[in-house]
Design a protein that fits this description.
The complex is a heterodimer. Chain A has eleven helices and twelve strands. By secondary structure, chain A is an alpha/beta fold. Chain A has an eight-stranded mixed beta sheet, sandwiched between helices. Chain A has a four-stranded antiparallel beta sheet with strand order 2-1-4-5. Chain B is of the alpha/beta class. Helices cover about 35% and strands about 20% of the residues of chain B. Chain B contains twelve helices and twelve strands. The chains are: A alpha/beta, B alpha/beta. Chains A and B meet through helix 6, helix 7, helix 9 and helix 10 of A and helix 6, helix 7, helix 8, helix 9 and helix 10 of B.
C-alpha cells in the first residue's frame, strides 16, 4: 500500500475468522465464519471514511478489530505510527485514549444504573485525567458541547430520549480527547429528525476538534453526507473504495451500482422514472463464501469461467478509486438492462500491493 | 364508496401514568387499487391507527372511538367473530419484524395452510397447493422443498416474503403493511417493494403503507398522510406533497434527510424531540419545535383544512399561504438543486 506519511490509521490485510465449534467439553472447530477477510485501507488525520455494506458484510467486526475490542486473526493495524495489532492489554491502555467508539444502540450502550455524570466521566477516571472536581467540570463542559443541559449531570439514562442518549454516547467518546472515533451505525436507531441533529453534531465536532472518523452505516444517504471517502464491503471483503464524489457519481463495481439504485429517492418524479437494479437472492453465508469473486452468484454481469474462477484484484481507476471487479461499470447511471450488457473487456493490470 | 373509510378515529390507552391519546382524530379513505402512505416518526400513532382498524389492540385499557367503515360496515363496533372473518381474508397485515411474526415451532407450510383453511372450506391438499403457488409468486427459490422448512431456516428477507405470501394468500382487498422493509437491507428492500408493486398490479389490492422513510413513500404511495403526535398534519396526493409541502413538520422531515442526489453541507434539523402523548402541548402540537411559531399556535389548535390551490390537499397550520408557498419553494430549491 502506498504510504503518504500522514496516515493516522493503516489497516493492512486484516482478517477475522470466528470458529464454529462442536462439542461441549472437547470443542473442535468444524468451520470458520470469515467475517472480515483481507481488508486494507488507510485514513488520514481529519478525514472521514464511510464504510457501507449490508448486514453480515463484516463492517462492525472490522470496527471492533480497529479499536482492538476483537483480536485479529491476521493482518496489521498501525495507529498513529505504532503497530497495535498485538499489543497487550496494558500496552494498549494509553492508546485507548486516542481512539474511542460510538455504538449503534443508544439504549443498550449506556449502563442504566449509573448516572450520566459517571458514564461520561468514567473514561477520565480510568485514564487518571484530573481530580474528581476537574472531572466534573470537564463532564459539564462536554454535556454542553454535545447540546445537553450541564445540569442533567445527575440524571439516569432512562430519563433521556434516544437522540439525547446518543448525545451522551458522543460525549463519552469525546471525553478523553481522542484522535480517532469509530462510529458504528450511530444514527440507525434514531428517527430522521433526530438523526439529522446527531449528524450535524458529529460534523461540528469534527470541525472544532479536528477529529478523524471511521463511520459505519448501512444507509448510503447518511454515509454520503458525512464521509470524505467511502469503502463498500461485501461478504467480508472490500468491493470498492473511492472519494465520496467519485463513488456516488461513477461507481465501478456492480454491487455499488445495485446498492445506489436500490435507495428510494424522496422525490416521486425522480424515484418512479428510474428503474432499480434488483439483485437476485440473498447475501451468501460467510462460512462458505462463493469462489473467486464473492459477488458472482448475484452479479448481473457475471461471466462464467472467469468471475467464478479468478478472483479479481482491486483494479485502480485513478485518484485512489479502486474496485474489485473484472468487468467494471462503464458509466453511471445505467438501467438493469444496460448493466447486463457489458461492453468492457476484462481488466488486465492488477493493482500493485 | 371507498373501500375503507376512517372517520375521526381516536384511540387512547389507559396507563399507570394517565391516559395516552395515541391516535387523536384521524380521518382518511382508501380506494381500490390505491396505495396510501402513512408517514411519521416513532410514537406518532401510525401503527396504532392500523391496529385499531384491524381490531388488534388489547381490549383491556383501550378506548377507541370514531368510525372505520369497511365497505360500509363499521369495524370498531363489529363483533370479534365478524372481525376474525374479515381479518386475513378481505384485509390482511404485514408486520414490521419478520423475525418475530412467524411461529417458530411450525413449518411455514403449515402456517400458510392454516391461513387458508381458517377462511376457506378446502382440503389440506388444495390449501397446500395454494401456499406453494404464493411462495413461488413472492420469489422463494425451490419453494417445493422450502415449504416444509421452519422459519429459522430462512433469512430476514425470505421471512418477510413468507409474511407477504401469508398476507396475500386469500386475495385480500386491502393489505396493511406496517414498516414492511425497515428491518431489511436496501437491496432486499428493493426486492420486497418491487414484489409488492407487482402483486398489487396482479391482484388489484389496495395497500396502506406505514413507514418513516419518505423515500419509500415517494416511490410507492399515491396518497400520503403525514402524522405528528397522534394527529394528521398534512394529507395530499404524493406529487403535491413533495412539490408543495404545506406544513413546517413536513418541511423539517424533508430537509433533515441526507440525500443521494444532492449535496447539502448541513442538514436542516428539527430541534427538540417529539412530545409525550401523556401531556401533549397546547394549541398546535408541533409549536414547541416549530421555527415559524406564532402566538396563535400556542393557544389554538389549527384545523385540518384544504389549501387554496387544491381542495384535496389538507394541512393543519396557522401560517399564511404566502409564507408557506415561499418556504416550500425555498425547500424545494435546496433539495432539488443538483437533481435538476
Amino acid at each position: 500500500m502506498e504510504v503518504r506519511g500522514d496516515e493516522l490509521l493503516i489497516v493492512e490485510d486484516v482478517k477475522k475468522y470466528f470458529p464454529i465449534t462442536r462439542g461441549v467439553i472437547f470443542q473442535k472447530a468444524i468451520a470458520q465464519v470469515q467475517a472480515v477477510d483481507g481488508v486494507s485501507f488507510s485514513l488520514r488525520a481529519g478525514e472521514t471514511l464511510g464504510i457501507v455494506g449490508e448486514s453480515g458484510c463484516g463492517k462492525s467486526t472490522l470496527a471492533r478489530c480497529i479499536v482492538r475490542l476483537l483480536d485479529t486473526t491476521a493482518g496489521r493495524i498501525v495507529f498513529d505510527g505504532r503497530d497495535v495489532t498485538n499489543l497487550s492489554r496494558m500496552a494498549m491502555r494509553p492508546i485507548r485514549r486516542e481512539m474511542t467508539m460510538i455504538f449503534q444502540d443508544p439504549y443498550a450502550s449506556l449502563n442504566p444504573r449509573k448516572r450520566v455524570g459517571f458514564i461520561i466521566g468514567e473514561p477520565l477516571e480510568i485514564h487518571k485525567l484530573g481530580t474528581p472536581g476537574e472531572v466534573k467540570t470537564r463532564v459539564q463542559e462536554l454535556l454542553e458541547v454535545v447540546g445537553l443541559n450541564p445540569e442533567h449531570y445527575n440524571r439516569f439514562p432512562h430519563e433521556f430520549s434516544g437522540g439525547q442518549r446518543q448525545r451522551i454516547g458522543v460525549a463519552r467518546a469525546l471525553a478523553v480527547n481522542p484522535k480517532l472515533i469509530v462510529c458504528d451505525e450511530p444514527v440507525s436507531a434514531l428517527d430522521v429528525s433526530v438523526q439529522a441533529q446527531i449528524l450535524n453534531l458529529l460534523k461540528d465536532l469534527q470541525d472544532d476538534f479536528g477529529l478523524t472518523y471511521v463511520f459505519i452505516a448501512h444507509d448510503l444517504n447518511v454515509v454520503r453526507h458525512i464521509s470524505d471517502r467511502v469503502m463498500v464491503m461485501y461478504l467480508g471483503q472490500v468491493s470498492e473504495v473511492a472519494s465520496r464524489d467519485d463513488l456516488y457519481r461513477e461507481p465501478k463495481h456492480p454491487y455499488t451500482g445495485a446498492l445506489l439504485s436500490a435507495v428510494p429517492i424522496p422525490n416521486p418524479e425522480l424515484g418512479r422514472q428510474r428503474e432499480a437494479i434488483v439483485l437476485e437472492g440473498d447475501v451468501p453465508s460467510p462460512v462458505n463464501p462463493p469462489s473467486a469473486c464473492r459477488f458472482h452468484p448475484r452479479c448481473p454481469r457475471f461471466v462464467e469461467g472467469h468471475c467464478d474462477v479468478e478472483e479479481p484484484p482491486l483494479y485502480p481507476f485513478g485518484d485512489g478509486h479502486v474496485a474489485k471487479c473484472h468487468y467494471p461499470l462503464e458509466r453511471w447511471p445505467m438501467t438493469a438492462e444496460e448493466m447486463r450488457r457489458r461492453t468492457t473487456t476484462a481488466r488486465e493490470e492488477p493493482v500493485e500491493a | 364508496m371507498a373501500l375503507l373509510e376512517v372517520k375521526d378515529l381516536r384511540t387512547s390507552f389507559r396507563t399507570e401514568d394517565g391516559i395516552v391519546k395515541a391516535v387523536d382524530g384521524v380521518s382518511f379513505s382508501v380506494e381500490k387499487g390505491q396505495t396510501l402512505g402513512i408517514v411519521g416518526e416513532s410514537g406518532s400513532g401510525k401503527s396504532v391507527t392500523c391496529l385499531t382498524i384491524m381490531g388488534l389492540n388489547a381490549r383491556k385499557n383501550t378506548i377507541s372511538s370514531g368510525e372505520a367503515l369497511w365497505k360500509g360496515k363499521d369495524l370498531l363496533t363489529a363483533k370479534p367473530s365478524e372481525l376474525r372473518q374479515i381479518r386475513g381474508d378481505d384485509m390482511s397485515m404485514i408486520f414490521q419484524d419478520p423475525m418475530t411474526s412467524l411461529n417458530p415451532v411450525h413449518t411455514i407450510g403449515k402456517q400458510l395452510v392454516e391461513a387458508v383453511q381458517l377462511h376457506r372450506d378446502v382440503t389440506t391438499r388444495v390449501a397446500r397447493a395454494r401456499a406453494l403457488e404464493l411462495l413461488k409468486a413472492v420469489g422463494i427459490p425451490k419453494a417445493e422443498t422450502r415449504i416444509d422448512d421452519y422459519p429459522h431456516q430462512f433469512s430476514g428477507g425470505m421471512r418477510q416474503r413468507v409474511m407477504i405470501a401469508m398476507a396475500l394468500i386469500n386475495d385480500p382487498d386491502l393489505l396493511i403493511a406496517d414498516e414492511p422493509t425497515t428491518a431489511l437491507d436496501v437491496t432486499t428492500q428493493a426486492q420486497i417493494l418491487n414484489l409488492m408493486k407487482r402483486l398489487q398490479e396482479d391482484f388489484g389490492s389496495a395497500i396502506i403503507m406505514i413507514t418513516h422513510d419518505l423515500g419509500v413513500v415517494a416511490e410507492t404511495a399515491d396518497d400520503v398522510v403525514v402524522m405528528y403526535a397522534a394527529k394528521v398534519v398534512e394529507h395530499a396526493d404524493v406529487s403535491d406533497l413533495f412539490n408543495r409541502p404545506q406544513h413546517p413538520y413536513t418541511w423539517g422531515l424533508m430537509g433533515s434527510l441526507p440525500r443521494l442526489e444532492t449535496d447539502t453541507e448541513r442538514l436542516v434539523q428539527i430541534p427538540g424531540q417529539p412530545p409525550s402523548l401523556l401531556r401533549p402541548p397546547n394549541g398546535c402540537r408541533f409549536h414547541p419545535r416549530c421555527p415559524y411559531v406564532m402566538g396563535v399556535c400556542r393557544t389554538t389548535e389549527p384545523p385540518l383544512e384544504p389549501t387554496e390551490h387544491d381542495p384535496e390537499h389538507l394541512q393543519a397550520c396557522h401560517l399564511d399561504q404566502e409564507t408557506k408557498n415561499r418556504e416550500a419553494a425555498k425547500l424545494l430549491e435546496s433539495t432539488m438543486a443538483e437533481a435538476g
